[in-house]
Every structure is written in structure tokens, then in C-alpha cells.
Amino acid sequence: MIAEAARNPDLGGLTIAIADHCVDIAMTGGGMWQIPLGPVTLHNNQIRRDPPHPAELTNALGLVHDYFDDIIVEAPMVLATPSVMAVGNHAEALAHVEIGHTDVPPSYSILRADADEVFRTLVSEQRSVRLANPGLEARHVDTLIGVLCIVLAIMRRLDLGEIAIHVG
After folding, report:
1. Strands 162-165 and 84-87
2. Are strands 14-18 and 23-27 parallel, antiparallel or unpaired?
């Protein structure tokens, strides 16, 4: 699950740990849930074309949204979270691409408008072009669109303006 050092410090805050095949979600002060898909799962099963077709992206976003809605049904207090922090190497990869290099400042947050812009840019590019994006490591070129689907689906469902990204 989520390491103590990487937990959102805000009482009632959510920590979303993005792993290859799942997203672990923990609420500071209690509550743990899991979305049984991650960026690798989305890449392997939903986002198959290069560049992805709009229907693939809609389906990927919808799957994450539906799983997150199941969490909200079980724990409506999730809707009142004061903040969300994403952790893990996939979250860090998103920060690297948004910033354009791998030196992420402490207390970094990605704005929803910026996440949307990175998403719009990457989904329109073929893999070979995505590789040239500053900050994007080759090991994340296939999964970053899935990461964005996860982050944006949660941001949209919670109507968040930003999400913190823990680096380290």
C-alpha cells in the first residue's frame, strides 16, 4: 500500500498511489480503497492505438471515473476531501513532463488546466513524437496517457483545481 512518508498530511486528504496495475487510495485519518487498474492496465487494454482514438480515451477515463464512483458510494466523505496528493513513479513522470525536466520543486502541484493541456498534447502525438517531449523518460512513454486518464478522472470527479505530486 502507501508508505507513511508519502501520505497526504491533511486530515481527510487523499493519497493516490499510482502503480502499474492499480491505484491505491488512502484517506488521512482512515479509509483505504483500490481501483483495480493502473496506467499499464489502461495501456494494454484500453489505449491500444498510436495515437489513441477518442473512444479509447473516453473509455479509459470512464473506467477510472466508474471505479472512483464506487468508492464515493462506499465513502461519501471522499467528496469533502480538502486535498489530493499523487505518489509513485508514474505520478513523478507526469510532473517531469509538465515541467519539462526531472528536477521537480518541493511542494509541486499540477493545475487541472495544465494536466488537461499535457493530455491534449500527448494524445495527439504518435509514440515516436511523444518520446521527444522534454522530461519524458522512455520507460513512461507508453503509460503516461494512462496516468493522465487516472489523474484527470479523479480531478474531474472531485472538481479539483490542482493535485499535489509527491516526489521522492
Report:
1. parallel
2. antiparallel
